[in-house]
Each structure stands twice: as C-alpha cells, then as structure tokens.
Write a structure and sequence with these properties.
The protein is an alpha+beta fold and 279 residues long. Helix content is 44%, strand content 17%.
C-alpha cells in the first residue's frame, strides 16, 4: 500500500512539473509573439479598431478619427494598403502615387498627420493647462487644420499647447532633455488607459528646443496592446498589435532613431508625461 502511495505521489509530482512547464512555455511563447498590423483598409479591421478604441475613448472622438481614416483610405486605399491584420515587417508606401491621388480629390488640403489624429482621439482624455505655446514648428499642422476645418478655436489652442515646442539646453544628454519634457507635461493630466506615446526630437536651428516629431495612441486589448498612428501627411494609418508596451517602445525607438543630426541628442520616447529610458 505504501509503495502504491509513493508511486501515486511521484506521478502527481511529474504531472505538476509538466503543467508548470506548459505554463512557462505558454508564457514565453506569448512574449515572443510578433506584432501584426493593418492600414484599416477594410470594414472588418476598421470595425475591430473602432471597438477597441471605444472601450477607452469618447465615442465622438473615435467617430471623428474613423471618419478621417475612411476619407484617407477611400481616396488612396488602392495603393497597396492592407485591410486584414498581417505580420508586421518594414513597410514601404508609394508616397508619390498617394500624393497624386490625394491632391486630385482634396486640392491644397494636405490631409492630417500623427499629431492631428492623436489630438482627435485624446482631446477628451487629456486636461490641458492654459499656458503659453510655441507653435513655430506647427506651421504645416496649422495650415491643414485651417484648410480642412478640423478644429474650432478652442481645440486649435489646446492642440498648440499639447504639441508646443519646449525650450532645452545645448547638450546631447537625453536625460537633460527628458527632464524638460517631463516638467512641461507635468502640467497636464493624462489618461492611464489611452496613452500618448511621443517621439521627441532635439532641434537647434532657432535655439535649442524639443518637439514631438511623431506621436500615436496606445490602448490595452484583451491580450496585449493596440498602437494607432498616422505616419505622415502623405503616408497611411497603421494600427499595430503588440504583446507588450515595451515592444511598442522598441518599434518607435528603432523607426525614428535617425531623426537627429550633428550636435543633437538622439530622439527619445515619452509615455504620457514620463520618459521611457530604453538604455
């Protein structure tokens, strides 16, 4: 009888170790999941992203964003834009053809960019202080907002403040610049769920300053995160599913690592009002 009990205990131990092993394997496997993306150029992908965003953002903001996506894809979607989510690799878009199709329909309205779309999504989720803004580098944004009649006077002012140029020092030390951005964004109240991820670049053409060169919105999903961005005025929307926030940080750091120059600091990532230290 004792021998039988011993065998049973051994078998239970082996089974437990096996189950633990499976759990560890599943965890590691999930961590290694590759990102997938879509240009939202299909009804299914558009509805899926709308559903995910609507869990964290104001319905009106999501509707306005979806309208911008639909207008863009209806105009240039024939230029190889993806509908269904697919494995994410380096993307290469035919900007010349896109620009031609867009101009034929919209004339001198150049469309929208990352900052305009991010504000469209987050404007009801960020409390913006009424402080002085420096809009020197927002001239294209302001032209697009004006010609596209995208924002009213209040939203235009808040947009200017959110993406204002921030004064900094003549150094290549990212920590110094990050402190200036954190100090500026401490005046704002950001949302914990729908997060603003910014790629901040250093500029010294007119005194040393910091500027949000690229930005998008990150929201949680049932099994990871969804990052939504508009690459440039010409280039399309991308919705990318990542398994972790860190994977999204790595994507942004890698994609925009060359946005610098002699004597300038390398670009860095801000998650809402906090610097993301990738070192």
């Amino acid at each position: 009888m004792k021998h039988l009990k011993k065998q049973t205990l051994i078998l239970l131990s082996i089974a437990s170790l096996f189950l633990v092993g499976l759990a560890v394997f599943a965890h590691l496997h999930k961590k290694e999941e590759k990102p997938i993306y879509s240009n939202l150029n299909s009804k299914a992908s558009l509805n899926e992203v709308r559903s995910i965003l609507s869990k964290h953002l104001n319905e009106e903001s999501v509707d306005n964003f979806i309208n911008l996506v639909t207008d863009y894809n209806d105009t240039v979607g024939s230029v190889g834009l993806s509908g269904s989510f697919a494995p994410f690799t380096k993307t290469d878009y035919d900007v010349e053809k896109i620009s031609s199709l867009w101009a034929a329909k919209h004339g001198d309205f150049i469309g929208t960019n990352c900052r305009i779309n991010t504000y469209t999504l987050l404007k009801g989720k960020i409390k913006i202080p009424q402080v002085k803004s420096d809009t020197e580098l927002l001239f294209q944004d302001k032209d697009a907002i004006d010609k596209g009649k995208l924002f009213d006077t209040k939203d235009q002012a808040n947009f200017d403040i959110l993406f204002s140029r921030v004064k900094t020092e003549a150094t290549q030390d990212v920590k110094v610049h990050a402190k200036h951005m954190e100090d500026y964004y401490k005046q704002f109240t950001f949302d914990d769920r729908a997060r603003m991820l910014s790629v901040v670049v250093h500029d010294n053409l007119d005194g040393d300053s910091l500027f949000v060169g690229h930005v998008g919105v990150l929201v949680p999903t049932t099994d990871g995160y969804l990052f939504v961005e508009k690459l440039t005025f010409e280039e399309p929307y991308q919705a990318i599913k990542f398994s972790s926030k860190k994977d999204c940080y790595k994507y942004l750091t890698t994609k925009y690592k060359d946005y610098t120059g002699p004597g300038l600091a390398k670009p860095f990532i801000m998650d809402n009002d906090k610097w993301v230290d990738m070192d």
